[in-house]
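2024-03-11 09:14:02 DEBUG pipeline.ingest accepted 1 chain
2024-03-11 09:14:02 DEBUG pipeline.ingest length=265
2024-03-11 09:14:03 DEBUG pipeline.predict start
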Amino acid sequence: MLYKTEEEVALLKESAMLVSKTLASIAKIIRAGISTLDLDTHANTFLRDHGAVPSFYKYGGFPFNVCASVNEAVVHGFPNKTPLKEGDIVSIDVGAYMNGYHGDQAYTFILGEVSDEILKLVRITKESLSKGIEQAVHGNRVGDISYAIQSHVTPHGYGIVRELVGHGLGKNLHEEPNIPNYGAKGRGKMLRENLVIAIEPMINLGTASIITEDDGWTILTADGKPSVHFEHDVCVKKGEALLLTDFGIIEQEEKANSNLNSSYY
């Protein structure tokens, strides 16, 4: 595992915060009627205007700048020209490469009115991420993060995607260790100070089972029910994890945008 110097953590935080700012700028404009391809173009421009390049573009052959996953799409959704509509939930996952380091963050937006069932799924998924982050401290193990997420989600009967996991982050977009969203306390690799990781619960309303779309990238729930995805970049520290990304600036724009539903808080 690659432990970072304080100087590297500072550079990582710059990249991570740029991703948060990009997502906040998306929160300003996302609405029914706009397409995810419009959001992809917007994010590309925003990142490049701020001295970064999109981490995802051509990563493993991925042909877009962001992942835009709507409703039953779990992750890795291709942006397209289809207008978003009232009642959609949209996960936007953004990566920024700047000063030699990557930032990586995802946020799920709710367009207009949705059922209480969906609001609860979004809330529980977001809360589970916070529970996982609480365990990202020096001396704990990966399984402590995984168990915290799983134990918050499982009582609600949701499906926890097992094939896709969080990961280390640094000069490479994906580094060791993998961070599953399920696991056992006290198991897995030891967490030590200045390990930087991306924690990202992907939680389905129904089954945990997933399928891959014909495009070879988009991951869908096997039963067609909605999925929610949130992600933070975190630096392991003694006592309390250091957040490198920021939901606060995204939430501020989310609440200011009358087209978005933030009533799940």
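2024-03-11 09:14:41 DEBUG pipeline.report The mean pLDDT is 97.
2024-03-11 09:14:41 DEBUG pipeline.predict end
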